[in-house]
Amino acid sequence: MIVITDSNIIFSALITPNGIVSQILKSKSKLQFFAPSYLFEEVNRHLAKIEEFSPFIKVS
Q1: Which among 5, 23, 27, 57 has most CB atoms closer than 10 A?
Q2: Are 34 and 5 within 8 A, CB to CB?
Q3: What are the helix (H) ranges across 1-60?
Q4: Rounded to whole angstroms, how far apart are CA atoms 57 and 60?
């Protein structure tokens, strides 16, 4: 299955790691992910806000 994602999907998965979006992304089925080339830039731009709400360890 092909999954087309954007930063909102990634943000959701990072903020709610036990949510449905995270479950789909962590699925063991054969998924092909496609994302816009600016995805990493967008995540980096909003990293402080993601860290504020995410239960993951903060990036230093």
Answers
A1: 5
A2: yes
A3: 7-15, 20-25, 39-45, 47-53
A4: 9
pLDDT by residue (tens digit) across 16-42?
A: 989 999 998 888 788 888 999 999 999
Place of tokens 């999954």: 3
Rounded to 5 degrees, φ, ψ at 25 are: -65, -30
Tell which residue, 34, 40, 46, 43, has the closest CA to residue 5: 34
CA distances to 3, 28, 60 from 31, in Å:
7, 8, 31
Q: Tell me the residue type at 23.
A: Q
2-20 confidence digits (pLDDT tens): 888 999 999 999 899 899 9
Rounded CA gap, 11 and 54, in Å?
9
- pTM of the complete model: 0.72
